[in-house]
Design brief:
438 residues, 2 domains, nine-stranded mixed sheet, seven-stranded mixed sheet, binds magnesium ion
């Protein structure tokens, strides 16, 4: 039986619900709904004008409905009178293909039919900056190699602890918080779980981090490369496929792994699928103009960009696109902070299942430092260098068209192309410096 949101509200003292959904560009949109109206919305959905969001809808389209998923309910820890619920988008009585949460559920249903359940964890890096977005929030955070800097992380304790306390209260099983590789950069980790749960938490984590920072007079940004000389914000994801009960990790192997990484044949097929489609998925995993300043980046002040530049995998080696840190799972390091939390999961699963269906082989792992010896990986495909190339690759990718549907890909490509064109109409300082005296 579906959970009754009105009943939950009465038990927990909820006065308002944030009925929320994410559009194709990852923007979180909501209506703040008094509890008296939640019963009707749980049944019929909350109405929205789709043209107002990034969904490729026009003002002539009928109402868009956000159908709350009561399983996603969160009582906001710092505003207990508010409940948050994630929605699937519906139109004309059926789920909307362009809804990122619907797209993920479609891939999850496909996996379920094959007997699989995907579990994932995400690592959302972010910078703490001033309100204007022009500088780091902490002007004492200047060390050249600031990763794990105790002094700097503790200067942000009032904010970090508030976010961590909230995750503890929500029982996400958070387990560590640290200062990351760039000045002003942090990462907070919680346990992996089912892909949809992780995606909903990822959406809420971004909202929570921003909201708590704003209440402290600063700003959190997940922008892929907010400062050219500093390490960018990645969003690495760890994944494994389990049986439908969620008890047995099918990426683990009882027997010998001839490649020595402790992965099952199924894991290698899944990995083969990810490697097959990775280049074409950058438009989804690295979805902004700015994303491509993180990929293929020059060295940062800390000495490394920590971002991949080619489609390779290795063992516990952070210079590759895919790292296998432990037996039974692997980490995809391609995505950045701008990635849509639902499309991140949908893209990985769609590519991985294609690998399983077509028995794709990722080849042997590479045990080299890709930043120093990348030239040795002669056959490795290189990631696109800008958003335009990435959009064109996605547009042409038959695997993603088949998995996510033409309606979804066409809408995404159209909106992203408009984004690229908007950027192209921008006259930059670089152009003036290099062209004024032509
Ligand atoms: Mg990190």
């Amino acid at each position: 039986m579906e959970k009754d949101l009105e009943k939950i509200a009465k038990e927990k003292g909820i006065k308002y619900f944030l009925v929320s959904w994410v559009d194709m560009f990852g923007m979180l949109r909501s209506k703040l709904v008094p509890t008296r109206a939640i019963k009707g919305m749980q049944k019929n959905g909350a109405g929205f004008a789709g043209f107002a969001a990034y969904l490729d809808l026009t003002p002539a389209h009928p109402d868009l409905f956000g159908m709350p998923d009561p399983d996603s309910f969160i009582q906001i820890p710092w505003q207990k009178e508010i409940g948050w619920v994630a929605c699937d988008l519906w139109m004309n009585g059926k789920p909307l293909e362009a809804s990122p949460r619907v797209a993920l559920k479609k891939q999850l249903a496909r996996a379920e039919k094959m007997g699989y359940r995907m579990k994932t964890g995400v690592e959302c890096e972010f910078h703490l900056i001033n309100k204007e977005g022009t500088a780091l929030a902490d002007d004492m955070d200047t060390h050249a190699k600031p990763c794990y800097d105790q002094q700097a992380v503790m200067r942000q304790y009032p904010i970090i602890s508030k976010i961590a306390d909230a995750m503890l209260e929500l029982e996400w099983n958070p387990y560590q918080n640290d200062h990351e590789d760039s000045n002003g950069q942090f990462e907070m980790n919680w346990d992996y779980d089912d892909a949809l749960k992780t995606a909903d938490r990822h959406v809420f984590f971004k909202y929570m981090t921003r909201a708590i920072c704003e209440s402290h007079g600063i700003r959190a940004t997940f922008m892929p490369k907010p400062f050219m000389n500093l390490t960018g914000n990645g969003c690495h994801a760890h994944m494994s496929i389990w049986d439908l009960d969620g008890k047995k990790n099918l990426f683990s192997t009882d027997g010998e792994d001839p490649r020595g990484l402790g992965l099952s044949p199924l894991a290698y097929q899944f990995l083969g699928g990810i490697m097959e489609s990775a280049v074409d998925l950058t438009a989804i995993f690295n979805p902004t103009v700015n994303s491509f300043k993180r990929i293929n980046a020059p060295r940062t002040v800390s000495g490394s960009s920590w971002a991949p530049n080619a489609v390779t995998y290795g063992g516990n080696n952070r210079t590759h696109m895919v790292r296998v840190p432990d037996p039974g799972r692997f980490e995809l390091r391609l995505m950045d902070g701008a990635v849509n939390p639902y499309l991140l999961q949908a893209g990985m699963l769609a590519a991985g299942l294609d690998g399983v269906e077509n028995n794709r082989d990722p080849g042997d792992p590479l045990d080299i430092n890709m930043y120093e010896e990348g030239h040795l990986a002669k056959d490795a495909r290189h990631l696109p260098e800008n958003l335009l190339d990435a959009i064109r690759l996605l547009d042409d990718n038959k695997i993603m068209r088949k998995a996510l549907g033409d309606e979804f890909i066409d809408a995404y490509v159209k909106l992203k192309m408009a984004d690229w064109n908007d950027f192209s109409h921008h006259l930059s300082t670089w152009e003036r410096q290099h062209t004024l005296d032509c």
